[in-house]
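fwd from M.: "can u put these together and see what the complex looks like"

so here's what she sent:
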Amino acid sequence: MTHAIPRHLFPAATRRQFLAGTAALGTLSLLPVVAWAQDGRLNVRAYLEPDDYDPLDASGFLEELLYGCIYRKLIQYVPGDEWDWQLDLAESIEQTSPTTIEFRLKEGQMWSDGFGEITAEDVKFSLDRHMVEENNSRIKPDLGTFTHVEVTGTHTGIIHMERPFAPMWTIALPYLAGTIICKEAVEAAGGKITTAIPPAVCGPYRVVEHRLGERWVLERNPDFSGEPADFERVDLIVIVDEAAAEIAREAGDVDFTAIGPASVARLQDSPPEGMQLSVHPALFYTWVGLNMEHPKFEDERVRRAIMHAIDVPSILQAAYFDVAEPATGIIAPGLIGHRPETMIPPQADFARARELLDEAGVDTLQINIDVLNNVTHTTAAQVMQAMMAQAGIELNITVHEGGSFWSLGVAADGDRWQDLELTIKQFSMTPDPYYATAWFVTDQIGDWNWEQFSNEEFDRLHEEALSETDPDRRDEMYRRMQDLMEESGAYRFITHGVTANLYADSIVPATRPDGLPLVQFFRRA
Amino acid sequence: MLRYTFQRIVLALAIVFFAISALYTVMITLPGDPTTVLLGPRATAEIRADFRERMGLDNPVYVQIAQFWGRILTGDMGTDFNRNRPVAEAVLNALPHTMALVFGAIFWSATLGILLGAFSADNRGSWLDRISGVLSVAFIAAPSFVVALYSLLVFSVWLRWFPTIGAGEPGDIMSRLYHLALPSFAIGLAWVGYVARIVRASMLEALGENYIRTARAFGLPRRTVIYNYALRVAILPAVQVLGVGIGGMLSSAVFAEIVFSRPGLGSLIYDSVSGRNYPVVMGSMLVAIGFFVTCALIADLINAALDPRHRSKA
């Protein structure tokens, strides 16, 4: 038997053949690069897939990313660093009384696919259908005290409310619930948009194809009445994993993606060639909540001891890589109701925590914390576990996958909500403070108020602030509500986090102040 | 052979039935209310109650399982909780992507594994054989998601040879294959190691057989003896391993589909489990288990056809 390399597996090649092969391989390696460099195409990452094109089924920004491209509203958010709105379909719009808003549509704004001009009837149809019980609108609460739209002319109408509703200008009209759809097209489709392609659109782009589980392919809408979109084609690509999205950006397969805090520090120091990084203060809020009704936490001193034993800066350092600021409440900076500081400083005070436990007659406290199985929250829990031991508090961590975690405090899903002790939660947010406080009223116990926090003054202020139109007075009310939350000893506010976007320098992205993309306003550099 | 085939088919059907029923029970009893997870925080109590009633979630578990099988027998996989569309539509849309991924992985593992195994056996005891052994074990030990991430970094980010995401343009076979190459390689690499070790071992065994000695004695060329006679017998165990390994490849497909952002059964199941979208989970699992059992069945039948000893054992 011979040990020589067999000739039949590795045939001999001449130098000329070798050079030719190398050249061919080199040319081949260029092909994908050429294929990627396509002008007029924009690839944007979507982190999950919206259900359909009907605002009735919308639940959050996932849908807004798509709807913003294909539909329009009376008013829209202004891209930039400050929360504000601008006219979109409306030529004029104003609050004519505490419960009425009058609008006039721009003339000559068209639907696609021959559905004619956008009229006040379309506005009435789009908003009123959320109030119809059988339609099961998931975003009906966003419209608050809205009752109906009165059509006063082809292009004019009046929005009626039962009581004044301040978030009408910050959430209802410029966000999901304010999306205008085509009455004629939707009625022809049976009253709901369940088709693979929406029957009529009016935004700068239209849907060409939905590749289920992969992407939406949009192209410039030739019937769009505004300034034509800058890109011929926009792909909204579903990339669930943050690391995969970052790799896709680095490989040039997506032009715009959000990235996790872990990458921010690295990319800030050395951004990859041809890429830009932007970091924005986010709106969501993360906090450690404590179930006030649990027997272990009946004594307020025990609750306060736990709050003093949580070191927020350490959590931010380990879990958020020091790119996020400590939160002072549930309302982010830049919004009405934001508090400048917390009552208990973000730094832990273990001596004070120990003192409070001693006063309550507790020697060793063993408690449990339930967290979602993502790296940020499990790291935060591990930091807490290590730090709280210094105050004599033994923390056990229970990790859950999403489906299980988000039902923990829900009474309809068994008795687990009563046995909860501590949880780390993160809620999404819109640019109006009512959206944050809504989850902590007494009525929400058994649903989303997992702390079982119940305070009459809080509930009353929440209701009053909805109708309060004086911004200063509203600001004061929401600050007071967060004070009440903190005084209860059931909340330790962690952070609002950041939104970090990595994008190609061949585009000029447009984002809301919280960094979420408004793709309809993206331009080429 | 007919009797053997019949026995295997009955066994396959029984496996599918019990696996799916057990999975359904586990799924339903998992903590996590689908109405909370699916409808989001802003859904009112009335909307949730209506949803539960429409989807039959108020019924006891055994009733839900019976209803599920009843629907399956009439060819109905149920309705997607989220999109209010037939589950079959979602599953049939995802299935070709996963099948392509798994068959792509089989292609890589069979091609590279057999070559590596045959090469090792042919060079038994040499340093090339030892390197091949180390490589095979390394391939087996490397988790698919690690291979996937490093493949992306090397072949997509650094070299820019392959795309990082998607399944390619519909209707363009070259684009599809181009997008398939890297994810299928990531899944198939571990099986290259298995196949190489199995082919090497069985080829060494075959090389010691009398008919090989006879062939050599007749003066047949060495290449003909090894690759026409010995390898033909040596790849049989590899076929069986790959048949059973499809289950493992399907599991790896979940990671590959997420990392490469490809549509497919894996990502469909992952999303549906997180969202407690029971009908889609069960529809996808039914097809995935059916696919696995069918592949294992085909591998068994091929083996039985090629080697009569298998039939007689049964």
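replying to her w this: DSSP finds 15 helices and 22 strands in chain A.
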